[in-house]
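Page header: ASSEMBLY MODEL / two components / 481 residues total.
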Amino acid sequence: MPIPILSLLTSDIQYALNCMEIGDLIAFSLCSKRTKHLAKSSNRKIHSICAEFDTGSSIAIQQQDDELFFDFDDSGTELKRRNGVEVWRKPEFTQSDWVAHFLSIFNKSMIHVLYIENIEISHLDSIKQIIPKFNRLEIGDLSSDSVAKMAFFKLAPIAVEHVVVHKNVFDYGNDVSKFLTQNLKSVFFFDFDNPFKLELNDLLKAKIENLTIQTANITEQELNRFLKIWMKSNHSFYRPKYIKLFLTKEINREDVLRGIKYYSGSHNCQLNRADGKTLLISIRARSVILEFQ
Amino acid sequence: MSSTEQGTSSAAPAEPTTAPESAAAPEVPESFYYVHGKDKVVHKVSAGALQHSALIHGMISNLGYTEEQAKANPFPFENIDGDILQMVVDWCNQHKGKPTPPEDTNLPKQKEKLFDLVLAVNYLEIKELLTYCCKQVAMMVKGKSPEEIREIWMIPTDAEDEAAEKEAKKRAGKEAAGETAAAAGDAK
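Prediction written out in full:
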């Protein structure tokens, strides 16, 4: 028998909403503007909301020990939960509306992770409209080179914190600089199978604040020349704060530091520049970390 | 379970209903109070059972009734249906002096009465029972789609909400106009 839940006291409705599973709460929020407001007021805590664009588009609502997936397009959303796949229609909703609705009811200011896989390049602009703000951009390894590159240039500047690229998109020498000279906060280029070929100029031109490359192919000589140039560049601004390179082959610490005056610690060594700037260097068998202070 | 007998709120019941005996007999004589709902059926409930209700507990603390006085003056809850009050009394008796478990299997099963039960429990301020009832309300829509939830919980559409709001505004406007006219008439 039906009950008129909205006639109950707000505190009682909130008790009931607090007892509901996330999927049920979302369904409730879609009933009307009032129910959306009530769902939002319940302040339900979730871990994050992630979006993935592949051949289709999906939203994942992540909780501590569970995850709900919605495949969504302009005509509706398909929810996968315990009792199979359900289709919820909301004809007046565009994809942007779905995303805005999810963010709103869970009081989230942005999508946590936007994951881009092999999509049409022309779709990138609409993704920018649908997901106007996100914390982290991930570009998948199944993306074509052209999609991965374009996604990086169009979407990475919007990422608030991190960008992760799961494939080597540096085809030509010029490419590397184009990617590394972006004014970004944190970027992780990741490809085990196709190492990223780096040269001295790439490091000199880099503008990414926190850069990690796994795996990179760079010689001891190039690293040594970079350190020497850095030592001589008094009063010049170098934007990167942290560079970590995982290397394809073991490197010789002595060759990297040859001819450079440094202070040595157990694993680290420190370079002091005349203008007061310091550089901490950690060299392991297959990795180099540079911390600029 | 408690038995019931017809009574009135203004007169003392001849033989009020008896609360169920708890499994372990209390060491000191327990005091009893009397409540009735809309149907005037008086229920005799122990002070221990009534402790679940913050509202009644507060009333008892303030009144300092003797048993005779309590018998003569049952607490009237005219806004609560008799059968709903019966459910509440039963629950309070079953959980007298016991910590309430996280899942309550003794909860009344009548879904059609759930709405009234929530209202009554809220009024009587029985927090644990309210939590169970609200859980049960939530269970009604477990795994349901928005359309199914709208039906089960009788949720109006946005258009219906807007129409109701317009209607309410119109009514409020008319009432205000009526009051202004009456005030003007009085002034003359």
